[in-house]
């Protein structure tokens, strides 16, 4: 992935509505052929990023480059990008075929060519038999695929998807995720996908860009974001996590000590220079996933005792709440479920631990 | 809320039926009178006749008034639908002062017709514009503009904003977007507004009385005749006008209803 | 996004406002200015004066007529709401097609010719009308009653008959907007049908009642034809007096001044209706 060239770049792009800033000098590079998920809670500015790239809004300052050329002033209908809208925005007065062919039709392409390309696009999204239906006669998932076919038919350099799965129910959503991913692999076009659902971002994105409050917090592969979050926000936003506040201690190779209410813990820095070079006493968090926490083994360096409460069954996993001694810190513990039930009971106190390799430090 | 056959519901149904009868009474009287000879409130039910309709076909005075009404109605429709639609588009496109514009357009509709009519009367006199069917058309257009404006604006607002964005995003120009996306979607509302505008213009009496010249529309002719009492052919005309109005109502309902169904999706 | 004040935006705004300004604002402005002119022996005097307003307040005729007219129109509004509410409630309690079909049936008379309706009402109410004939046939009275012939009672009845549909519609719409689960919640909490109506349905439908009443009032007070047609020579209403200033009396400036008074009353009625409606809705 890393060798592929840059398709689109945002350079210190800011956006304000009146006096209200929604994006603060964002830098983002999109690589040719990648599936980039932009993830963030509502109000994080993620949709604004999409609208700025699509040309639905104009930047307040900064610039957007396509193949190194500034396209900030290019109007929406001249940008080689197409959007799949959250509400699909299918034209209610047109048939499915007319909707899909719209982009070619407004460019004045010959009818025969439009017909052929519409048929191809509908086949691609497996809706070949629906060409003459009206949008109102389609299910949510079908509308979604029509919107995708309509966006793909002009062979855009970049497809922008604005939470296209948000209106679908869970089952359909899973199916559509796989479908989107397979189509993107098939046509090898760059996709930029905006979502507030971190599971969706992990399932779809080659890379994920996490946004909060108009800033980009971290960009990286799902694996990196999950195991090497660079800030408390990403660490918390990205799946269940235990964050224990403390102050940094001595460096030991790739590991570094942190003094917390649980006592002195040793966690991985992942080789991150900022973490390695931060002076001792700097405020930070020890972060470890609930599945990294487990009953202590013989030579655990990170070791404390905890009392279990509220054990709940979640299918594949069973989750328990833990109150630690010392410190009375609230943690979550995730165990693989067993047919006969897990061996631990509520109210039980036992020694717990996690391995430094399974943990990570995050600067506060 | 469900209607069960409790005494309360029965009472409500009865009141509704009574009100319905009372509302339709004034409409039935002339229709019946057009087929039967009525003297001193007593109808002669024994001998239905079309004599009144024959007489109507020969009443040039009424027929020319009817023609004037039609001309005024269609001119009003053309003017109010085109102006109303343009203003609604301006409003929906976040044009400057949209709220003020809406207020101005609504003024003649909210103010009593006597005020709208008198203001126009004085205006026409001051700019020395002779009163004629043209002034009637202007008066009607000013009056019904609010209806068309509102109908079209409501439909425009119910259209998802992303439809326009999607069209532009797919490479269409603003002009193409208007013709191929916006217009087909507001055509129904424009037609419904047109029918309402025609119905209102067809029946407008108070403003018309104030701004009309020598030739006038049917309601004003009827009003003038009413003081002397109606001849039977007027009853025939009334019956025909009522039937025509009912047809217009059905048409307007048809044109405006599908919008509701569509909005439900 | 704020409205753009670019040259193109200003040009568009100019075009959009041109017609409403010429045909609505200018006539109304001239109208207001006219109310400060006067007439001397049939000629207009274009010197500003407050005499017209002075005459309205000092002449013993106009204020009593205005008060009578207001009482008349408030009565019409009250009767329309009282009669219209049960109808609207019944319509709103129906399901499916019937609901809108019946509603439409109730509204169709609105689109029927206004003059013809007045004419028909007159022939029903008149000395030799259907009403008297029916009452006599039924033996309730033995000679034609003149209770509803060419007087304010007739005007009241005629206006009510004409305007009831205007009361039904807003009340129906406000009743229709009440979510069914609110009523279910009320029943669920142990309220009876009457309690539910008085404590849930009625308060929530008051905005509709308020706009219905102000609607009917405004339409009734501006009507100068109905009083003339069914009210005979004696029952003067305010609008009729205004109209006469532009006909027989030929005093346009004074008519304009009286119209301004009427407009103020109408605006007050609309504001009261709106205010009341919004307050209730906010609760």
Topology:
The complex is a heterotrimer of chains A (364), B (265) and C (283).
Chain A: E1 6-17, E2 20-31, E3 35-39, H1 46-54, E4 61-66, E5 69-70, E6 81-84, H2 96-105, H3 111-124, H4 140-152, E7 158-162, H5 170-187, E8 190-195, H6 198-204, E9 207-212, E10 215-220, H7 222-227, H8 232-237, E11 242-252, E12 255-260, E13 263-268, H9 273-277, E14 283-288, E15 294-295, E16 302-314, E17 317-325, E18 330-336, E19 349-354, E20 359-363
Parallel strand pairs in A: 3-8, 3-9, 6-7, 7-8
Antiparallel strand pairs in A: 1-2, 1-4, 4-5, 9-10, 11-12, 11-14, 12-13, 14-20, 15-19, 16-17, 16-19, 17-18
Helix pairs in contact in A: 2-3, 2-4, 3-4
Chain B: H1 7-35, E1 38-39, E2 42-43, H2 51-57, H3 60-92, H4 98-110, H5 113-126, H6 133-158, H7 161-169, H8 174-203, H9 206-211, H10 218-226, H11 232-264
Antiparallel strand pairs in B: 1-2
Helix pairs in contact in B: 1-11, 2-11, 3-4, 3-6, 3-8, 3-10, 4-6, 6-8, 7-8, 8-11
Chain C: H1 7-34, E1 38-40, E2 43-45, H2 51-58, H3 62-93, H4 96-111, H5 114-125, H6 130-137, H7 152-176, H8 180-188, H9 193-221, H10 225-230, H11 238-246, H12 252-282
Antiparallel strand pairs in C: 1-2
What's a quick, concise take on this entry?
The complex is a heterotrimer of chains A (364), B (265) and C (283). Chain A is of the alpha+beta class.
How does this model look, in words?
The complex is a heterotrimer of chains A (364), B (265) and C (283). With 364 residues, chain A is α+β, with helices and mostly antiparallel strands. Chain A folds into 2 domains: 6-227, Rossmann fold (3-Layer(aba) Sandwich); 240-363, OB fold (Dihydrolipoamide Acetyltransferase, E2P). Chain A contains 9 helices and 20 strands. In chain A, helix 2 (96-105) runs parallel beside helix 4. The two termini of chain A are 31 Å apart. Chain B is mostly helical. Chain B has one domain: MetI-like (MetI-like fold, Orthogonal Bundle). Chain B contains 11 helices and 2 strands; from the N terminus they run H-E-E-H-H-H-H-H-H-H-H-H-H. In chain B, a hairpin with a 2-residue loop joins strand 1 and strand 2. In chain B, helix 6 crosses helix 8. The longest helix of chain B has 33 residues, at 60-92. The radius of gyration of chain B is 23 Å and the shape is globular. The relative contact order of chain B is 0.13. Chain C is an all-alpha fold and 283 residues long. In chain C, 75% of the residues lie in helices and 2% in strands. Chain C has a two-stranded antiparallel sheet with strand order 1-2. Chain C is globular. Chain C starts with 6 loop residues before the first helix and ends with a helix. The chains are: A alpha+beta (364), B mainly alpha (265), C mainly alpha (283). At the B-C interface, helix 1, helix 3, helix 4, helix 5 and helix 6 of B face helix 1, helix 3, helix 4, helix 5 and helix 6 of C.
């Amino acid at each position: 992935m890393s060798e592929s060239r840059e398709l689109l770049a945002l350079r210190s792009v800011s956006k304000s509505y009146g006096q209200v800033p929604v994006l603060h000098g964002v830098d983002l590079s999109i690589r040719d052929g990648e599936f980039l998920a932009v993830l963030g809670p509502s109000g994080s500015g993620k949709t604004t990023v999409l609208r700025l790239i699509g040309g639905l809004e104009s930047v307040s300052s900064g610039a957007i480059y396509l193949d190194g050329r500034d396209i900030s002033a290019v109007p929406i209908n001249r940008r080689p990008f197409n959007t799949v809208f959250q509400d699909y925005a299918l034209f209610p007065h047109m048939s499915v075929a007319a909707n899909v062919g719209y982009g070619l039709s407004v460019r004045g392409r010959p009818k025969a060519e439009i017909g052929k390309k519409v048929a191809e696009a509908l086949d691609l999204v497996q809706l070949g038999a629906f060409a003459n239906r009206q949008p109102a006669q389609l299910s949510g998932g079908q509308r979604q695929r029509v919107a995708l076919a309509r966006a793909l038919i002009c062979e855009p350099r970049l497809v922008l998807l604005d939470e296209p799965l948000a209106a679908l129910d869970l089952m359909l959503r899973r199916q559509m995720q796989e479908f989107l991913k397979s189509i993107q692999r098939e046509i090898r076009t760059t996709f930029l996908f905006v979502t507030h659902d971190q599971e969706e971002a992990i399932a779809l994105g080659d890379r994920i860009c996490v946004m909060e409050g108009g800033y980009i917090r971290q960009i990286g592969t799902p694996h990196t974001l999950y195991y090497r979050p660079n800030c408390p926000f990403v660490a918390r936003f990205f799946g269940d996590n235990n964050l224990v506040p403390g102050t940094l201690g001595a460096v030991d190779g790739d590991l570094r000590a942190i003094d917390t209410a649980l006592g002195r813990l040793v966690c991985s820095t992942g080789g991150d220079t900022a973490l390695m070079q931060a002076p001792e006493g700097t405020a930070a968090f020890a972060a470890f996933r609930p599945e990294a926490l487990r009953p202590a083994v013989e030579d655990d360096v990170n070791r404390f005792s905890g009392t279990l409460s509220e054990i709940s069954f979640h299918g594949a996993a069973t989750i328990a709440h833990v109150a630690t001694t010392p410190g009375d810190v609230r943690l979550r513990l995730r165990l693989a479920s067993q047919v006969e039930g897990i061996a631990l009971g509520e109210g039980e106190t036992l020694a717990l631990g996690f391995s430094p390799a399974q943990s990570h430090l995050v600067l506060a | 809320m469900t209607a069960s056959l409790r005494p309360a519901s029965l009472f409500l149904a009865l009141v509704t039926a009574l009100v319905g009868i009372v509302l339709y009474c004034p409409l039935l009287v002339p229709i019946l009178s057009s087929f039967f000879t009525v003297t001193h409130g007593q109808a002669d039910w024994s001998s239905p006749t079309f004599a009144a309709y024959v007489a109507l076909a020969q009443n040039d005075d009424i027929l020319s008034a009817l023609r004037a009404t039609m001309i005024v109605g269609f001119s009003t429709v053309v003017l109010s639908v085109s102006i109303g639609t343009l203003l609604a588009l301006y409003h929906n496109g976040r044009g400057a002062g949209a709220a003020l514009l809406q207020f101005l357009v609504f003024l003649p509709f909210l103010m009593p017709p006597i005020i709208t009519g008198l203001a126009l009367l004085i205006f026409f006199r001051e700019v020395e514009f002779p009163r004629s069917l043209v002034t009637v058309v202007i008066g009607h257009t000013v009056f019904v503009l609010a209806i068309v404006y509102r109908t079209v604006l409501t439909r425009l607002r119910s259209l998802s904003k992303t439809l326009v964005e999607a069209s532009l995003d797919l490479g269409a120009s603003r002009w193409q977007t208007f013709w191929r996306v916006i217009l087909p979607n507001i055509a129904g509302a424009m037609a419904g507004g047109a029918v309402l505008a025609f119905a209102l213009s067809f029946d407008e009496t108070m403003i018309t009385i104030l701004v009309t010249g020598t030739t006038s529309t049917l309601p004003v002719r009827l009003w003038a005749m009413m003081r002397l009492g109606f001849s039977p052919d007027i009853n025939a005309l009334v019956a025909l006008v009522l039937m025509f109005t009912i047809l217009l109502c059905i048409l307007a309902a048809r044109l405006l209803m599908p919008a509701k169904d569509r909005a439900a999706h | 996004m704020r409205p753009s004040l670019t040259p193109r935006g200003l040009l568009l705004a100019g075009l959009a406002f041109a017609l409403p300004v010429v045909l609505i604002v200018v006539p109304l402005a001239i109208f207001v200015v006219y109310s400060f002119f006067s007439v001397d022996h049939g000629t207009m005097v274009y010197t500003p004066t407050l005499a017209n307003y002075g005459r309205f307040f000092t002449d013993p005729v106009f204020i009593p007529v205005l008060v009578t007219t207001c009482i008349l129109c408030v009565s019409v509004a009250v009767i329309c709401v009282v009669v219209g509410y049960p109808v609207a409630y019944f319509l709103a309690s129906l399901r499916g097609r019937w609901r809108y079909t019946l509603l439409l049936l109730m509204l169709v008379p609105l689109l029927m010719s206004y003059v013809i309706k007045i004419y028909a009402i007159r022939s029903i109410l008149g000395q030799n009308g259907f009403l008297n004939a029916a009452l006599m046939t039924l033996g309730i009275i033995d000679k034609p009653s003149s209770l509803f012939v060419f007087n304010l009672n007739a005007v009241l009845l005629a206006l009510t008959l004409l305007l009831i549909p205007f009361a039904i519609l807003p009340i129906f719409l406000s009743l229709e907007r009440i979510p069914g689960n609110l009523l279910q919640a009320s029943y669920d909490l142990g309220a009876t049908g009457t309690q539910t109506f008085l404590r849930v349905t009625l308060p929530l439908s008051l905005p509709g009642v308020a706009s219905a009443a102000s609607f009917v009032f405004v339409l009734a007070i501006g009507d100068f034809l109905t009083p003339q047609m069914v009210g005979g020579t004696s029952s003067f209403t305010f609008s009729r007096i205004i109209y006469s200033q532009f006909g027989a009396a030929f005093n346009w400036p004074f008519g304009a001044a009286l119209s301004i008074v009427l407009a103020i009353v109408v605006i007050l009625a609309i504001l009261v209706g709106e205010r009341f409606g919004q307050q209730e809705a906010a609760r």
